[in-house]
Give the backbone structure.
Amino acid sequence: LMLFPIDHGNSAMKTVNFVFPSGLIDNPIRPPVDTEMLEYDGKFWTLSGQRISYMRDKTKDERYWILTLFAIAKELEHRGAEHTASVHLAAGLPLTSFGRDKKSFRSYLYRDGSTIPFRYEGQDYTITIQEVSLFPQGYAAVLTQTELLDEPSVIVADIGGWTVALMRLDNRLPNAATCRSLEWGMIRCIDEISEQVRRVLGLSLTTAQIECVLRGDASSLPDEAKGIIHAQADLYVQNLLS
């Protein structure tokens, strides 16, 4: 039984070894190349740099399931493992919706434990989801930070693509009354930066360009654009902390 921890983000999918945008293209016919192409149930899917529009319920269609198959295939390939695998999925849900959504999300990922054949980049795969474990996002991560847990009260902030989940721990125990989910994630930050640059300079920037500047990587964007990006990011942080 192989363990696959996967974060089904609104902005990006994350595994132990990979991060890729939560974006898909449903191709009506087989694409000319197999690169980043997955065939499942008679359909051909390719990854896209354009993320899926925000979905409050990720189980309402097949796209996050297809992204899960991409994640598993990438990890199997990276590990040099057999293409036939029994899988234990570990995934997270926002703090405020964990109790409400865990049953449906587990069923969405479990697929009744049936055998699932698919093809990724021209190679055949067969997996069986034998176990699904779900955890509250953020809380599971902070449990590994012993220096934080020694504090009498700690605020856990999980800054995601669309939401920021907040929870306070008192003497290491979660205080359920303090849980909040704010629609103030990084997608909002990027959108507001993009709008401000367009308004001031008349430039249309891609998400990749904005993220490049925020990371401090080399970029050929004019200094004025970089200044606006950093100023808007500072404003986002100030609003978040307030």
Remarks:
- Residues 223-241 form the longest helix (19 residues).
- The chain has a mean pLDDT of 91.
